[in-house]
Amino acid sequence: MTAPGKIAAAFDPAGVRKDFPILAREVYGKPLVYLDNGASAQKPNAVLDAMNDFASREYANVHRGVHYLSAVATDRYEAARETVRRFLNAGSVDEIVFTKGGTESINLVSYAFLAPRIQPGDEIVLTVMEHHSNIVPWHFLRERQGAVLKWVDVRDDGSLDVEALDAAITSKTKLVAVTHMSNVLGTVTPLKEIIARAHTKGAPVLIDGCQGVVHEPVDVRALDVDFYAFTGHKLYGPTGIGVLYAKAANLKTMRPFNGGGEMIREVSREKITYADTPARFEAGTPPIIESVGLAAAIDYLGTLDRAAVAAHEHDLLKYTRERLRELNWVRVIGDAPGKGAIISVETEGMHAHDVATILDREGVATRAGHHCAQPLMERFGVASTTRASFALYNTRAEADALIDALQKARKILG
Amino acid sequence: MDDSLRELYQEVILDHSRHPRHFGSMDHPTHSGEGYNPLCGDRVKIYLSVDKDDRIADIKFEGKGCAISQASASLMTDMLTGRTVAEAQKLMGGFLHLVKGEDAGELPADDRERLDVMAGVSAFPMRVKCATLAWHTMKSALEGGTAAKTE
Questions:
Q1: What is the pLDDT of residues B63-104, one digit of tens each?
Q2: H or E stretch covering A320
Q3: Residue A373 φ/ψ, nearest 5 degrees
C-alpha cells in the first residue's frame, strides 16, 4: 500500500509491461498487441498474487463466522472498502457499496433510488454517448413508470454541449445520468460543471465512471457528485466486482434492492428490519476475493505516478491520431479536446468486423461493433466502428503495429 | 499472408461483397424475412417469389454488413434461385454444416464445390454468424416467420 505522502516512482511505460504477465504472450505466432482495454484491462501480478495469496491463506465467508478466518476475511473485505473510499476521496466507508460491476451499480440507483421517486412525466436527462448500461436502466423506468428520457446530443467532434445539457434539465428532472468518459469517442465530460449546473436546478447526478476512473483521479467530494459508478475489471482489477459511491444521505433513503442474507438486521415470520448501509445493498455472499483484487489494483495504481501515466496515454493518443492521418481512408469518430486514449474509426469500404478479423491475425486485439452504444452510432450514422482503446502498458510500437495491420487490411479488402 | 485469411477473403468472396447479386427489394414477394445480428448490428432483408410449383422464381436481398455476410447473402441468392423449396431447405442445411466445419455430406458434389468459397469461415468461429445470417433469414422467410437472429 502507498502511504500518504510517499513519493511515487517515475512512470516507465516499458518497465511496467513486466508487471502484466499476459503481455508477454503471442497470438497466431505474433506478439500480442492488446488494444481492447476499454472492454477490459489486463491484470498485473500485484492483483493476481493478492487474490491467490488471499484465497490460499486467508479466505472464508465474511460477516458470518466467529472463527478466525472469517474474521480475517472480513477485515480484508472491509479494508478493501477503505481502499476504495480513499481512492475516491469519499467521506465515509458507509458510502461505498460493492456490486458485481458497473452495470449493477447503475441498476441499483435505478431500482433503489430513482424508481420510488418517478411519477409519469418525470424526466431523466442523459447524453447520446452513454453506454447501454447507463441507458437501459432508465428505459426500464420509461416503460414501467412513464419516465421521459431527454437526450442531450454531442457536437460533431464528440464533445458534450454543456449548454444543451443545462437546457434539458428542468424542474421535472429527477436524475442527470452522464458518462465520465465515452467508451466509443474517448470524450471526457466536464463533471464539475455538469454537477454544479444540475444541482442549481435541484437535480441529482449519476456519473458512469467505468472508463473515466481508469484514466484520471476522481474526488467525489470535490465533485459533489451524488452517485459515481465503476467496475473493477477495466481498472486492472478482477471481473465480478464493481462499486457504487453514493452520498450517505441518499443511501439512507434508498429502498433495498436484492433481498437475502447480509442485508437484514432481523427476520421473523411477520416482518424484517434492514441492516445499515452499505450492507443493506449487499445481499448474499459478496465478491470477497475480488474485493482483495480490486484493492490490490488500486494500490498498484498508487505506486505509479498517475499524472505521468496520463501523460503517457495522452502521448499514445496523439501519436496514433497523427499516424492515422497517413491513412486517408480512415475516418476517426470523435476528436473532442482533452479526450482520452480511445480511438474509434470508420474504414472506407471496409466493415469493422472484417478489419478487426485481419488485425486480430496480426496479433492486434481491437473491438469491432456498436460498443453497446447504439444511440451514439446512430448519431454518427455508422453501424459499427473499429475501436482501439489504450492502457498504461501500451507503447508507441504497438500503435505502429496497429497502423501496419490497418494497412494490411486495406491491402486485402480495399 | 496468413493462409486462413487468404482463404477467408478470397477473390470470389470480395467480388460478391463488392458487387452483390440480386441486391434490391421486391414489390410483391410471396415470402420475406428480416435478419439481425445483435453482435454487430448487421441487418438483412430477404424477399422471395415462390411460384405455384413451389419453386423459388426470384430472390432479392437488401442490407448492410461485413464482406462475409454480404458475400454469403449474394452467393445464396445465386444458388437458390430456380430451386424448389425442398431443394433449398436441403442446401441450407448443408451450408450451415459446412461453415461450422461439420460434415456436409448431404450436399451434392457440384453444390459443395460452389459453396467451397465459404468453407474458410469455419476457421474463424467468431465470424460464422456473419456467414449464416442471410441463410437463417431465408429459412425463416420460407417457414413463414418474419425475424431471424444470429447470436
A1: 988 999 999 999 999 999 999 999 999 999 999 999 999 998
A2: helix A306-324
A3: -145, 55
Backbone angles phi, psi at B14, to 5 degrees: -65, -35
Q: What are the tens digits of pLDDT across the range A47-71?
A: 999 999 999 999 999 987 789 999 9
Q: Which residue of A has its CA nearest to B15?
A: A413
In chain A, what is the straight-line distance between the N-terminal and C-terminal CA atoms, in Å? 51
What ipTM goes with this model? 0.87
Alpha carbon distance A11, A165 (integer Å): 37
Tell me the β-bridge partners of A181.
Answer: A188
Q: Which three cell numbers stand for residue A2?
A: 502507498
Q: Which residues in chain B are contacts of A370 at CB distance < 8 A?
A: 40-41
Give the Cα separation of A377 and A161 in Å (integer): 18
The Cα–Cα gap between A274 and A281 comes to: 10
**pTM for the full model?**
0.92
Tell whether A359 is within 8 A of chain B (Cβ).
Answer: no
Q: Under a CB-based contact definition with an 8 Å cutoff, are residues A414 and A349 in contact?
A: yes
Helix pair B85-99, B67-80: axis angle to 10 deg: 150
A374 inside 8 A of chain B by CB: yes
| Contact residues for B117 (Cβ-Cβ < 8 A; gap 6+) | B10, B12, B13, B71, B75
Q: Do A361 and B4 touch (CB under 8 A)?
A: yes
E strand or H helix that includes residue A253: helix A248-253
- CA-based Rg of chain B, rounded to a whole angstrom? 14
